Amino acid sequence: MQRYSLLPLLHRALRGNQGWRPVWREPKPKAGYDVIVIGGGGHGLATAYYLAKKYGVKNIAVLERGWIGGGNSGRNTQVVRSNYFHSASSSFYDHSLQLYERLGAELNFNIMLSQRGLVQLAHSEHELEITRRWCNAIRMNGVDSEMLTSAQIKRLAAPIDLNGHFPIIGGFLQRRAGISRHDAVVWGYARAASALSVHIVQNCEVTGFDITGDRVRGVQTSQGPIGADKVVMSVAGYASHLAKFAGLRLPITTMALQAMVTEPIKPVLDVVVISAAVHAYVSQSDRGEIVIGAGADAYNSYAQRGGLPQQRAAIGAVLELFPSFSRLKLMRQWAGRVDITPDTSPLMGLTSIEGLFINCGWGTGGYKAIPAGGDTMAHTIVTGKPHPLISAFALERFKTGALVDEGAAAGVAH
Amino acid sequence: MFRIPCPYCGLRDEPEFIFGGPSHVTRPAPDVDDAAWTEYLFARDNPVGVHYERWLHSFGCGRWFNAARDTLTHEILGVYAMGDSKPAVGSP
User: What is the dihedral sign for C-alpha A334, A337, A342, A347?
Assistant: First the structure.
């Protein structure tokens, strides 16, 4: 792997930027691997990277139906945070945030992590009470979180209107939360994994599993059969579809979640602002675009496009909070397929088929979990036992009733 | 945005309706084991293609009905009354 640093950068700049090489190889798949990762998104690539880096697994393939990072890893709003209510979630997501804090140095790839802080708004006395409970629960979980008055919010987010249709009376802040560049996370993991001999195979769709008895032996793909005794499903959008090939029915409903950006403007907003009550989700990217996240369309959809009603609702909510943004033009709008589970927590760990692992059901919040998802799944695949940080997210929780109901805790519609 | 042909009111815009999840999910007998109960409560077909689902015409006649809709194209392939069995619709 060519290491990136100032000297080679200057060297190449002076020679007309010749000599840059592709940073991951595109090999033909072999007949068999030790581990096959299905899905070349952030989670799949991170799993392959940690398998090779931390556990020395030599023979790994990542199979991607389209191109790496072309699914939800490239369609999210780039927010990283760990302000979760339940301790199982906050310890997992904070592990992820801690890995993100070191990730640029570890991968030798600038992921442009900007821990600018995330403000969660409260619009009524009742919401403020529940926000205080939420904020305190996060602190009890050992994660940074602090209450804000409306005056403090105004100082953090200057263009905000405190006295709109739903007045802002307070909120809370996680200072370590922020945004990072999602493509860089995907490319950084791909580059580092490829350097550790991981095979990244694009345009390779999995069309079935080879299962003997209760044991997985490999997969069928659009590029022929590939053998492996350990296979992990690390997909978003098509998780139910893929699991059906193995005879599994998942507790997942797939919906469209959309986001949009305005034309770029000069820096006006250097925190992420979220309001659960009006469902606004807004930040400004490093390029200057105002990034707006909408709610999920309410019905099953694999269409990968968002509906107009949710788009209108999101824009209406953001303009209530930031009236000055009404002059901006929308530049792009897109949607991803999100796999929503009944408690909006992921499905991670073992399945009823030996050697077949699952890392799916991330719904609307998988991006922030990429490093920890990869790290804990690598441990799970190597040891055959769920990593302690993900044991609460096992499929069995729907049988035992031990749900991790973050959907209810966050009070967010998606 | 799509439009939904309410069997009682005719073709109306999507925001008039509330989605009610999958149809034909049958409640099992009270003495079934945990696995069957889990299946009933949480497991979903979630198909790519034809989905049989319930809709409420909330800002219209206020009545529930079933629809067969393609989850890839959002095309409504047919509507039918609550309690009716699944109509035969082909994938377009």
Answer: negative
